[in-house]
Amino acid sequence: MKTAILADLLDFTGDPGLADRASPHVRWRPAHWLLIDDDGRIAAVQAEAPGDDWQKIDHSGRLLMPGFIDTHVHCPQVDVIASWGTELLDWLNTYTFPAEARHADPAVAQVAADLFTDALLAHGTTAAVVFPTVHVASVEALFTAASQRGMQMVAGKVLMDRHAPDNLRDDVAGAEVDCRALIARWHGRGRNRYAVTPRFAATSTPEQLAMAGRLLADHPGVYMQTHVAENRAEVAWIAELFPQARSYLDVYAHHGLLTERAVLAHGIWLDDTDRALLHDSGAQIAFCPSSNLFLGSGLFGWQQAVAAGVHVSMASDVGGGTSLSMLRTLLDGYKVQALAGNRLTAWALLHAATRGAAQALRLGGQIGTLDVGAMADLCLWDVAVGPVAQRRDALARELHERLFAWVTLGDERNLAETWVAGVRRYRRGADPRA
Ligand code: GUN
Ligand code: ZN
What residue stretches are annotated with the Amidohydrolase-related domain (predicted)? Predict the structure, then answer.
């Protein structure tokens, strides 16, 4: 039987901007029914209850939003989340590379991918742009886990042929063969999309970056993901490794990696020329505030990026980031921008993690929205959990105040259910395997 859910529906019909609390692009439909078709898409939204041929689920008083989109997160790094005391380059060598090396074992990779995708759903994230590891088995495991859960997944084999331990290095020819086979096998299969994934300019030779550019040229529609301009020592190292490049970002531009389906994490240490390049290419920056604060990397300039017309989405960057919760990520984003004197609305933050990310990923109308015809990737949230949040909620006078308090005080404990393509995949308190 087809399903209909009663709840308070929130999504966006356009970009609400950064500071407008009264934006007309906020679509608030309290006490509405969301109807889900047999194919897992949104069939209708209406105030009246549907007929007897619909299975009706009453979540009155709960907030129903599109599932969050995390545009940069590392599957194997659940094992190194909350690791103490280092900046980026030391953190990679001390914690991250040893953990990723374990994923050469397909059994380890599969357990990790299952845990990771279940955890995303339990945090309210239904779509993600993900780094597995350099190993083909880790890519297979991740796409397999995402397929089993029906999730929208963008991922690809990490490319690194230098400045990494022996057990994590590939080479240009072998990596090209692996990538071509993985693209043929996974790109466009169900909701999986392939991303050519050079880890960052330091760990790929110019020859490997050129190979990555060839893969993108040969496969329109394939994504690209990498890191850029995260940490000052990293930026200085890239300048040494690529003395001819005008900037760090220019290394990627030179190799044909800046496409409209490129997702570049961080982008803290960019200049106006870089931002113009991002704008012209249509590439997006994945803003990773919790990671940037935790690793002491720096403060991303969202205002400057938006002024230059650059797409900005939100990302947890676990394990540099300290939570898979997009609510926590949004709150850290708010605080980072507050330091620069910008007060982002809850609308700006929530839009960036839903419709904004979808648009930047060229998946507008498919995810991040409650439009009819979109995939029914949905989360049901309790706006206030615990006495402090409940007291604050009771005192809120209008919707923005209420939902800003939810973003600020909430986390995965506020999540009641997660639905993916019209199927309930997470329920608070339930055994995910049951
Ligand atoms: N730069 C290169 N690799 C990584 C990574 O795994 N995490 C982060 N935050 N930055 C990186
Ligand atoms: Zn990262």
Answer: 64-423
